[in-house]
Write a structure and sequence with these properties.
single chain, about 210 residues, mainly alpha, Arc Repressor Mutant, subunit A, Tetracycline Repressor, domain 2, 2 domains, elongated
């Protein structure tokens, strides 16, 4: 094996994390080994272990890295001007840009729950942070208790999670924009934002295929 190119410690750590994100995204926690990460990064296993003492520690840093991207975007909502719908639309746009760009954040987070209790706790903390941020925005223009606002924040965050795969798989930017607009409209205005088709409540529903 060719000797790895020497880098300052901080640069090497950042490079290893970047490679680890790709490996864990592609193969998941259990199928990814430290040897695979080291090989993909062009270093030896001892070099990798100089920075991360175990696969769990490496994965935890990956979780924190992708999670911090989401949390930073949510935190920016509190500094924005505009009504709630504008802020919610901004949140969706920013989170969606991360998802569309690499499909990594939610894919990593949503496949990590069974890895270990420590990792499960880290993922839960990230989503709780996002839920509290969205809930705080809702409280700026609606009479809500903190508990109710956080519950709604959790629901909205869950909707974004559920849409992540569809966004990442969208074939065109137009389709991506449509999905973000659709979800944003529903979140900010509910079903009343969509035209009625004039069907009574008693009419039988057509099951989705």
């Amino acid at each position: 094996m060719v000797s790895p190119v020497r880098m300052p410690r901080s640069e090497r750590r950042a490079q290893l994390l970047q490679v680890a994100v790709a490996c864990f995204t592609r193969d998941g926690y259990y199928r990814t080994s430290m040897e695979m990460v080291a090989t993909a990064a062009g270093v030896t296993k001892p070099v990798l272990y100089q920075h991360f003492s175990s696969k769990e520690e490496l994965y935890l840093e990956v979780i924190r890295r992708v999670g911090s991207q989401m949390c930073d975007q949510i935190d920016q909502l509190l500094d924005m001007e505009g009504d709630t719908s504008v802020r919610v639309a901004f949140a969706l746009e920013r989170i969606s840009e991360i998802i569309i760009a690499s499909a990594e954040p939610l894919r990593i987070l949503d496949t990590s729950d069974a890895a270990s209790p420590i990792i499960e706790s880290a993922v839960r903390d990230i989503y709780d942070h996002c839920a509290r941020g969205v809930g705080t925005v809702l409280m700026l223009s609606r009479e809500l208790t903190e508990a109710d606002a956080e519950l709604l924040g959790q629901g909205l965050t869950g909707m974004v999670r559920a849409t992540a795969g569809r966004l990442a798989a969208a074939g065109t930017s137009g389709e991506q924009e449509h999905l973000v607009s659709l979800l944003g409209t529903f979140i900010s205005s509910g079903l009343r934002a969509f035209p009625s088709i004039g069907v009574t409540d008693s009419a039988p529903a057509t099951r989705l295929a």
